[in-house]
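=== Structure Prediction Worksheet ===
Name of assembly: unnamed complex
Input type: mixed (protein and possibly other molecules)
Chain count: two
Listed entries:
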Amino acid sequence: MNIMQSAAEPRPQIRPLGTMATDPILHVRNLEVTYYTDSGRAKALDNVSFTLNAGEKLGMVGESGSGKSTLALAMMRMIKPPGRIEGGQVIVGDVDLMALDQEGMRNARLSRIAYIPQGAMNSLNPVMRIGAQMADAVRSHLPNEPKPAIEARCKRALQSVDLDASVFRMYAHELSGGMKQRVCIAIGILLDPDVIIADEPTSALDVVTQRQVMETIDNVQKAINAAVILIGHDMGLMAQFVDRVAVMYAGRLVEMSTVREMFTDPKHPYSRALIESLPSLDNKGVFQGIPGLAPSLLRLPSGCAFHPRCASVMPVCSTTRPEAQILPGGRSVTCHLYDGEV
Amino acid sequence: MADLLRLENVSKVYSRGLLHAQSNVALSDFSLTLREDEPTILTVAGESGSGKTTLAMLLLGFTQPTTGRIIYRGRDISTLRGADKMAYRREVQAVFQDPFAVFNPFYTVDHLLTVPIQRFKLAKSKADARAKMEEALTAVGLRPEDILGRFPHQLSGGQRQRINVARALLLKPKLLIADEPVSMVDASLRATILETLRNLQRDHGVSIIYITHDLTTAYHIAKSIIVLYRGSVMEAGDVDTVIKDPQHPYTQLLVDSIPWPNLDQRWGAQPIKAREAGGGGSGCRFRSRCPQAMDICATEPPLFEISPTHTASCFLHHKQPEVAMERLSQLLPA
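=== Predicted Assembly ===
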């Protein structure tokens, strides 16, 4: 169900034939974003690096204000003032998005890297038909595509997210929340991107609709073999959906590992607290929150930003900032507990 | 053995249109009794459009039932006037879904606490008012010196939601209606707020109606559960039994869709039928999506008693004895 099959996409081939599925399609290197606010500089992304393979699903978790959405916007180069991308690379295939000019970046959005926004309910234009909004997106990338071909492409995209082709003629208010969310996914996959970033795509939906939407993302992701970054704070959803989990805290990646490692043996004390705070069927009535509050990015604690809340805090934690280290087995963790093990 | 609150065959129908009147049954023939001497936590669960928020609006007196009566301590709430109405307003409190929208950004958070104190004349002096506010904030696990005098934007969503609980607590309510209190709060803070609610019930004797679509939190906080679908009760009973051994196909679908944080407990493979838009029609409301729909489902199923603490409205259980809607509350453990 490759919706690109009939497309004559005028872009350099960035997935050469014979590429192994295990080759990373996405490299994020040392990405830094700072917000220059009136009360000071807030480093919302601090030296974030990771890679992602084609067809892989990565979950990005953290509390509000940990920099998850900033990461998504930075990768799309949609950070608005007073925020600024201070440095780093986002390489999709063989193109560094940060090095593109405005026009090049505009072309790369949707065709290389697509973004499904938070609260998709409110991201559709209420006075335009769904079809017109979708056709707009296609036309701006493929200006020479004839109208029937554009329409056919949009309808294929709608069908691939289990919506009826008649949705093409509808307005946003005629659709339910889950359907609107799926329209946003359909727009996201119109041009067969290599990377899809979904920012809390289901946070406003009930469990049944949530499951339908996640299954939809799963299906289209498999069909176009895209890499998916799922942003959210629901660890349960992560366990059901992703292959790897990255945990963010105060703008830094503090741990990244496979979903199984994360749930069976979380390394970073913050990940451990996150996992332990989860409700399950076995521990009814046990409420285990994480003590303390997320720090303000304007006044980060010295050393490790998590040390005031950490259960295994050591003297070194308040003085020295931990650096990311790769543990045996390939998982990465940013914590002094593992200083000797590398 | 006084009843705190009794809903007698309450229905709410929203109509629109004059010539081609369309009506939408938001809640249909719902009965429920809460006892005054046994504070409990009751979950009302269901997806969007199941009528759970309509129930909250009815209980708070924001809308009137189309048919049926809501009796609070022996009196119909639509007939309450003057001092009685004020007492009802004080004793039935709410915590709403969105901790960001309920604060006025121009006032400090003290405003939210001082207004009810003045309105209901809870304090004799300024110092007394201050002491009461501090007591309420401490009870929900906040440090008053961190909170009082601050503006809403300086506080996190979890803190704001706990201030809402503190405000409710200040008025010493008999009944708290919590409409999705944690759905907009970070997962890591949910535990804290739920614990606050549970302590409220345990230590202060407040009954709580916890309205949610999230069965995970419902399982952890509540003693009993009512599952609604399009305004009708699908299944009800002890929360452990209902969630671990659901008997109604709709509850099974709901439970099957919970994203448990457990790698060995996957989402069900059963495909989900999309919900059809519009009309209620007759018979079981879940019929069009039900994988086990039968011909008899075109007639409305009564409640069948599966065990003394478990009932489901589904013909799959027609061999069990029927339960009248009025007896629903007796099957809910306190």
